[in-house]
Amino acid sequence: MTEIEVCEKCRRLTGFGRVVEPENCLYCSGILWKLDELAERIHSDLIDYEYSTFLIGCRVEGSLKAIEEYFIELGMDEKNVLKNEIKRELGRIFSERYGKRVDFEKPDVTIIFNPERDELSYQIRPLYIYGRYRKRVRNISQTRWICGRCRGKGCEECNFTGKKYYLSVEEIIANPVVSLAKAKNGILHGSGREDVDARMLGNGRPFVLEVVEPKVRSIDLEQAERMINSSRIVSVSDLKFTDEEMIRHLKMGAFRKRYRAKVRFGRKIEEHELVAALNNLKNRTIHQRTPERVSHRRADLVRNRRVHDLKLLHVKDDVAVIEIESDAGLYIKELVSGDNGRTRPSLSEILGIEARVEKLDVLDVYDLESQNKLSE
User: Fold this and answer.
1) What CA–CA distance (Å, rounded) separates 303 from 295?
2) Where along this sequence does the record place binding of substrate (predicted)?
């Protein structure tokens, strides 16, 4: 054991070995004596980023990992491995020198040091911003929709934009925020999605914007709201900072939605027969196979969703306006048309005539877990 050459600091870690100069240390190669310099490198790398919390990580590989395993076999306490010492000491030095706080749960920046390669890498925690959006016009997708023909490269079919739709709710909301945060990208996570040709009105759809690699974290959300709303196409409200748990809630939580649909029938429809058909559908469980129109991009499943209420707002000749309240995830167009028998029961099936939605608006999205709308 006395032939193993380690520096004074590693001698304290391992509990054995002959003390040599740091640069000749078999274990750390002098790294433990250069943590002040390493802290300066990190500070310099992150000079353009706003952050208050951090966490040090250490990746051990290659020959260093083999040496470490050898030392453990000789009796070194596993708690004293080099990576733990680097994390402890480097974290202490960096915190004291630059006034940043260690956060083991959700640090603004995670700093990864690889002593084998003397490399630093960084994971910048995204900003998460909750809000509600209203889409005032039709034929705008919720998220960026890449052209299926060119896969985003640009072609004649997409007018060389690389996108199927020129604008998206995601871009209108994300672009101003990405600019304010000096971020890499913005990703919209919505509580469900409306069809491209449907509007989102009422109190708006809950969403979380994930702001990727922000350099500025303390952005002015009121300013962001004004910038977004200036588009007059999409408006947002209730913006506030949140965390990734809210995304899981939006995707997995229990929601109910209210719609307004303009429906055209295959013949003139009488008010009394339409009211009777709507009453027949109330409080019914709908068995809905993935609609034909989305089957190319959705799993072919049978979903069971409940219709809670239907109200006739207007009827004249072969056209009616109907308000529908249902579980989230029910395809309203197919509830009306039946989708060639893939949705049962349907309004078309009950009436025995063709029925199709010409226009659709989403009016409200409710959070059933709290029995309140998320903005309240």
Assistant:
1) 13
2) 259, 331
